[in-house]
Structures are given as C-alpha cells and as structure tokens.
C-alpha cells in the first residue's frame, strides 16, 4: 500500500494548500505524470489519498475542508491523487485508488491511455472526488473497472486546452457517485464517445451530459448501449442549464446522441435543450423504465427506434411500448472490496 502524506506543505504551490480561497488550485497532486511517453501503474496494490484523515497540524480532514468551502462559498485547496498532463501511452491495471482528497485521476491533453481492472473506492459524502476524468484528451479506454466515489464516477470534459475525442468505456460497474457524466466543461468539444455494458447501481444521476452558457460547446456522436440502472434519482440527465445562474455566450449543443437498450427503474428522465434554435438531438431505441418514471423534455428532437420507449415520451403517446428491454439481472455485481477503506 502507498499512503499519501497528510502535510499540506508537501503539495503546496503558492502558500494556499490546505486552505479555502477563491481559486482552489494551490496544491500539486500526490502523483504526477508530466510530458511522459509511456508509463503507468500496474499491480494489485492500493494507493490511499487519506482524504478522511486529519490534515497535519489541522483540526479537519481534506474532505471536511472541501465541505467547509462549500458552506463558505469558496474553493478548497486540496491535492488530487493522480494527474496525467501532456502524456501519452499510459496504462493503469489492477490498481485500487481510494480516499483521494480531490479528484482521483485527471487526464489533461493525454493521448492513448488505458484503465483496465481499476477500482476507485471513496465514500459517497467525500465532496469533489471524481473517479476518472479525461479532459481535452484522445484515445482513452476505461474497461472492466469498478468505481464508487463522492462525485462523478467518470466525467469526460473539454475546456480551453482542446477537444476530447475517441473515448471508450466497456464493461464497467458504477456504484454510489454522480454517474456517467460528460461535462460540465464542454467548450472544447466532445465527440466520438462509446459507453457499452455499464451498470449504474445507486448513482444519483445515471447517464448525464451537463453544461451551461458559461462553459458550453458541441457534444456529438455519443453512443450508449446495453446500460443497466437502478436506484437513480435522474437515470437520464441531459441538461444544458447545469448552472441556472451562469453567464456567457457558449451555448451547449448536444446532437447525435444514441441510447440503445437502456433499462432502469423510476426517477426523472431529463432531456432539456437550450432553446428551439439549439435543441437536443437524440435517438432512443429499446429504452425502458417503470411507468412511474417521469419525462422532463424541453427543446428536444427525439427519434424513436423500432424497439420503442417506455414510458412513452410526451407527444409520443401513440407509440407502442418498448418491445425489447435489457436483461439486467445477470449484470449486477457487488463492489469487489479487498479491505475496508479508511474514512
């Protein structure tokens, strides 16, 4: 096991690590891959960020600091567990990452990275502890992994550094967390995304694209297939008004989004485009939820495939119910715990 130092001075960039301010970028990560070609972390070991342990010479943990920042309206200065910046040909295999003070893994301007059989394990109440976040990166594979955390299980983003393209997720299992997300930063453009054979067991949102006019861009050519969900408040959560108070001119546009054989229980099914000029463009086929699920649809163009949708979206009441639903019973797996994570 590799355990992160709890001393803010070990990560400090500008004298602010371990404090609350208005920027929140005062800490270096525990592990950094910078401008590397090749490398990674493999094996069956554990890397523990100690997010729930007291910060050295402080009366609170990293997670308590993050929660205090939320209460005070500021930004927490906490270290991420792993950053991969301007790097290529990275492989993570078999490793368990847990209890990060902030995000577990971020990739920025990365190329050709694989995460295979990775476990991310952090409590649901640990604020801003995303699992794996590809940002302005290309050719990323996340496969056969298990993720439960206090924020987005995976969040695909694209900011000022450029577009994110060619991301594939296959045969993954998500538990508590905020779901399979794209956004909220999409200004650089996100495209060519495939998500297949995914379970979302108890995430607050399920499949999610989130952005707003302060950070929006084009999200296109996104394919979801063979998705199983249960215990979600918003199983479908595609929203262009993530921050209702956002200011800007970067209108989010979601188009060519395909949902094929997606099953869930109840909750709110949100498809909310920006306006009639910038509608969502979705194709739904074999999408099946309980009849108690409720649609919230605004400014959206929806094409229904031959396997139908249940319950029928508003204005589509004449369509038949879903003829084919995903058999999810065999897909639910318990999180593979090796020992109890520290909190």
Automatic annotation (TrEMBL):
Assigned protein family: Belongs to the glycosyl hydrolase 28 family.
SUPFAM superfamilies per UniProt: Pectin lyase-like
InterPro entries xref list: GH28_Enzymes, Glyco_hydro_28, Pectin_lyas_fold, Pectin_lyase_fold/virulence
Alphabetic keyword roster: Glycosidase, Hydrolase
Highest taxon of the lineage: Bacteria
Key word Plastid present: no
Pfam family, one: Glyco_hydro_28
PROSITE patterns assigned to the protein according to its UniProt record, in alphabetical order: POLYGALACTURONASE (PS00502)
Protein's recorded name: Endo-polygalacturonase
Keyword Hydrolase: yes
Matches recorded under PANTHER family: PECTIN LYASE-RELATED, PLASMIN AND FIBRONECTIN-BINDING PROTEIN A
């Amino acid at each position: 096991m590799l355990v992160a130092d709890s001393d803010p001075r070990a990560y400090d960039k500008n004298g602010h690590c371990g404090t609350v301010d208005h920027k929140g970028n005062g800490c270096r990560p525990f592990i950094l891959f910078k401008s590397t070609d090749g490398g990674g972390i493999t094996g069956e070991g554990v890397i523990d960020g100690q997010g729930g342990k007291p910060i050295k010479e402080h009366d609170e943990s990293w997670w308590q600091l993050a929660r205090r920042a939320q209460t005070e309206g500021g930004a927490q200065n906490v270290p991420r567990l792993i950053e991969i910046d301007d790097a290529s040909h990275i492989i993570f295999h078999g490793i368990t990452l847990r209890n990060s003070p902030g995000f577990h893994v971020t990739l920025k301007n990365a190329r050709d990275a694989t995460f295979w059989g990775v476990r991310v394990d952090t409590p649901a109440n640990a604020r801003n502890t995303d699992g794996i976040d590809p940002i302005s990166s290309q050719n990323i594979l996340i496969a056969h992994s298990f993720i439960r955390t206090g924020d987005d299980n995976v969040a695909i983003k694209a900011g000022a550094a450029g577009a994110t393209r060619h991301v594939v997720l296959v045969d993954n299992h998500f538990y508590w967390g905020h779901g399979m997300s794209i956004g909220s930063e999409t200004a650089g453009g996100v495209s060519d995304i495939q998500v297949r054979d995914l379970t979302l067991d108890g995430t607050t949102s399920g499949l999610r694209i989130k952005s707003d006019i302060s950070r929006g861009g084009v999200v296109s050519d996104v394919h979801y297939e063979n998705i199983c969900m249960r215990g979600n408040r918003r199983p479908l959560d595609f929203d262009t008004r993530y921050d209702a108070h956002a200011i800007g001119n970067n209108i989010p546009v979601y188009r060519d989004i395909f949902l094929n054989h997606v099953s869930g229980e109840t909750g709110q099914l949100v498809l909310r485009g920006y306006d009639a000029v910038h509608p969502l463009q979705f194709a739904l086929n074999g999408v099946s939820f309980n009849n108690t699920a409720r649609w919230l649809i605004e400014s959206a163009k929806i094409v229904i495939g031959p396997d139908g949708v249940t319950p029928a979206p508003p204005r589509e009441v004449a369509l038949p119910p879903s003829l084919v639903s995903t058999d999810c019973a065999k897909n639910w797996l318990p999180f593979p715990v090796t020992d109890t994570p520290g909190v």
